[in-house]
Amino acid sequence: MDEKNHYSISELASMLEISPSTIRFYEEKKLIDPERTSGNQRIYTRKDRARLKLILRGKRFGFSLDEIAEIIGLADVEVNEVSQIEKSLAYTDKRIAEIRARRSELDLLETDMIAMKDNLVKRLEEISAGQNEV
Amino acid sequence: MDEKNHYSISELASMLEISPSTIRFYEEKKLIDPERTSGNQRIYTRKDRARLKLILRGKRFGFSLDEIAEIIGLADVEVNEVSQIEKSLAYTDKRIAEIRARRSELDLLETDMIAMKDNLVKRLEEISAGQNEV
DNA sequence: AATAAAGTTAAAGTTAACTTTAACTATATA
DNA sequence: TATATAGTTAAAGTTAACTTTAACTTTATT
Question: Disulfide engineering: A31 pairs with which of A26, A80, A89, B76, CB 3.0-4.6 Å?
Fold first, then answer.
């Protein structure tokens, strides 16, 4: 039970290796909504930090901020309308399926990279073989 | 042994669900370099198509075109200098490690999405339970 | 209490990745 | 062979995702 529970914008920024203005930009885009101190400065909770990590993770997988906003929005649904929740549920299912598809794509990408590597290794071997023939 | 071996720009574009101008743009960025007909029109081989697929795949994983160019460049290295090949080899290893890191990130993303889903399911259950109490 | 460091907003600026446009050429079809 | 369809280049335009700037306020340090 160590670790802080609240962070200033620059603390959080350096933890996540992004700039404070990026964090403000995400707020402008409604991806986060931190509390404020009496003096109007932003305070971030662990939950805010988790959300930012999710945003950055989504980005690393090529999702746009708009898509990420949609995904995150699911956690925020205040609505208690069954139809709305069911709609969100269908959406999460679609996204989960997408993530699984990404995993097989990642396999393909890895295969391509390994093929490139093998190619380079082979080339090295050929060179040293040629060397011997001289 | 069916399937075509050569494609026009619009054929390839529709196969990959991108626009011809995107393909031309990638050429301008030196990511591909197709042959030309006598009348100067571009002809794409299966190899070109594979390369384009790799580009699109890289993009889906959040790589920039510059990074993709670097990765693709490895396949193009004409150089037979051992030191250069060794450098490229180190680079592929780094990228392969990165891909493996991405896989664990993908797991985290999936976990997050599943948590959201469970949350929605729970919410639905609460509503129908509440319903019964009325 | 003074001053430096960090935070605030609004607006303008930047860059990557395309897309559109315009003016022209090549190829396929009636 | 005419004409529609597809392709070509160069240049300008667009959008998402930030970054920078400027003028000001709050908080921390001496």
Answer: A26
CA distances B54 to A25, A106, B33, B45, B92, Å, are 31, 11, 15, 14, 15
Q: What is the DSSP letter of B31?
A: S
Reported as a single tens digit per residue, the pLDDT across B37-55 is: 999 999 999 999 999 999 9
Sign for the CA dihedral angle at A88, A89, A94, A96 comes to positive
Tell the burial category of A77 from Cβ atoms under 10 Å away from its Cβ (0-12, 13-18, 19+). Answer: middle
Q: Which two tokens stand for residue A49?
A: 């930090």
Residues A99, B60 contacting (CB under 8 angstroms): no
**CB atoms A61 and B62 under 8 Å:** yes
The answer to whether the Cβ–Cβ distance between B85 and A60 falls below 8 Å is no
Please report the domains of chain B, with CATH numbers, ordered by start residue.
Answer: 1-65 (1.10.1660.10)
Q: Do B113 and A106 touch (CB under 8 A)?
A: no
Q: Two tokens at B116?
A: 């959201």
Measuring from the CA of residue A9 to each C1' atom, give the nucleotide at the shortest distance.
C7
> Using CA atoms, how far apart are residues A26 and A30, in angstroms rounded to an integer?
6
Comparing CB atoms, the residue among B85, B108, B110 nearest residue A123 is B85
Nearest-angstrom CA–CA distance, A26 and A38: 22
Q: Enter the DSSP assignment of A101.
A: H
**Average predicted confidence (pLDDT) for chain A:** 92
Neighbours of B60 (CB within 10 A): 16
Chain B environment of A94 (Cβ under 8 Å)? none
Measure the CA dihedral B66/B70/B75/B80, to 10°: 140
ipTM confidence score: 0.89
Give mean pLDDT, residues B127-134: 76
